[in-house]
Amino acid sequence: MSLDYGLAETLLMLDSAPIAVADARGWKDWVAQPTLPISTVDCGVALDPNLELLSTLKPDVILTTEYLAMVEDRLTVVAPVRRLSIFSEGGTPYPKAVEAALALGELIGDRDRAQRYVAESETYFDVCRERARPFSEKPILLLSFLDPRHVRVYGAPGMYDDVLKRIGLRNAWTEETNYWGFSTIGIEALAKIGSAFAVADHLPQDIQAVLDQSPLWNDLPSVSGRKIPVLPTVLMFGAIPSARRFAGLLLDALEGAAA
User: Fold this and answer.
1) In the chain, which residues fall in CATH 3.40.50.1980?
2) Which parts of the sequence belong to the Fe/B12 periplasmic-binding domain (predicted)?
């Protein structure tokens, strides 16, 4: 079973669905694709899993990450714990996601399947790189709205930034971020960014309504009075499946805006 969505989605792509996932009820709101089987048990929140329930499920192993290290001692009374971290200090997420996929392949006894999936993903990104070629001149500004005046802006190191590099696009945000790959800023800080293609992965309608009336927002060079595209649900802190999904959704948005 997995306490992390990214590791769980990787298992699904390796045809080895976890018996339980932390906060399985929230999967459709945070991950969406791949679909979580209805048989998957929700074992509670990741930082406070239901140990009694886990004991009845008798998992072979419990998957955690560095972020969940504080609960690992409690979990060892239920089953062996395996930590596979994609978001951690040092390096960038995508290579760690590849390492995690291969490690999961070993864990389920099918490293060949994991190697094929990694290779298929490289081919997928090669195709995306060709699709992205017409959009390579203008940098991409990736935002997630917290309220009408504050956003998360995605940069390096981060999974979104890794994907941009892999498909030949530039990130408009070049300042430092945390190891999750984002900084929280006021929208006025976006004024220093010149011409860019702005896109959001989260922009509620009530916030959009306020932005529509905001001179500060509409005067930004990356906005210029237009409504920016909003991507369908994609896990910003995911693994290879979410990286692939993000690449496809971003290119759909770029192509849609150019049509």
Assistant:
1) 5-85, 133-258
2) 1-259
